[in-house]
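Agenda item 2: magnesium ion complex prediction
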Amino acid sequence: MTPRIITVTLNPAVDVTYRVGELHLGGTTRVADVRSRAGGKGVNVAAVVRALGGESLVLALTTTRTPDEFRDGLAELGLPHRLVPALPAVRRTVAVVAPADGTTMLQENGFPAGETAEAGIFAALRAELPAGAVVISGSVPEGLGADVPAKLARLCARHGVPVIADVSGPALREAAGSGAVLMPNEDELADLGGAGAGPDLVAAGAPAVVATLGAEGAIAVTAQGTWRARPAEVVTGNPAGAGDAGAAALAMHLTASEVDWPVALADVVATSAAAVLRPVAGEIDVAARNRWIREVKVERIR
Ligand SMILES: Nc1ncnc2c1ncn2[C@@H]1O[C@H](COP(=O)(O)OP(=O)(O)OP(=O)(O)O)[C@@H](O)[C@H]1O
Ligand SMILES: [Mg+2]
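Presented output:
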């Protein structure tokens, strides 16, 4: 068993799915089928770690009020968690699935975190370290500084714990010098300065930059070399959460004393494609992942 992986979610969500016959924009749509589930990128990562046979802990902010649908949702998923109540409410994302219209997503930004949020999340992480690896994922709610993921990453680095920062915007730029492995997608990589950003960040001390390029696969830039991997198959399905699945796979490899980068990158690409096969973020088709991990082509480019 690999050592436990902690995921950090500063902007949790309750993901609601409405299945409808037809969506009437500007009118009334009756909803016959409603499902809700604990969401947020770190929750997806923790669920995929478990699907890969690992042990995970969800560390997240949550609401100060009861009932707490997010907490109940984690219990329902059976995911171990340690929560810091510091939000007035947990945001919702609403997916309206209509056969003829596809999926319409409505995403709330999240409620502002209270004054105790930052100290609370640091105390919770300190209490749970050490770990095999830590994954810090998703957006930062209002009320917390964009430097909080970077500061959390530095805390992990001081404990000698490998850490992945899968964050965006100003939080990603802050995390660039924190000792975290960065996992930008194409847009986030452009934000860091484009294709040349990976080598520059590694030269400046980042342990690795794993850039994910949607259906084109992923590139790992490390001090040991640079590799590119393409999916064994381009999959049609639900790409939301594919990056989270890739982060879960990478975290499992980072728990080793020495990372075998081409093997880790093949796993990132196989596991994230296996997430596209599933309609729900946080799930993977394990059989497809086990098959693809042997078929993914990894090429050394530097
Ligand atoms: N259609 C696809 N077929 C096969 N693999 C895919 C496909 N789309 C994405 N992937 C895999 O998923 C990985 C992550 O995808 P992407 O770069 O879109 O991440 P992302 O934007 O961070 O996703 P999210 O944040 O929603 O989890 C890619 O590196 C690739 O390996
Ligand atoms: Mg992503």
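Discussion summary: The pocket of adenosine-5'-triphosphate (ligand 1) is lined by residues 185, 212-215, 217-218, 231, 234-235, 239-244, 246, 269, 272-273, 276 (CB under 6 Å).
Owner for follow-up: CH.
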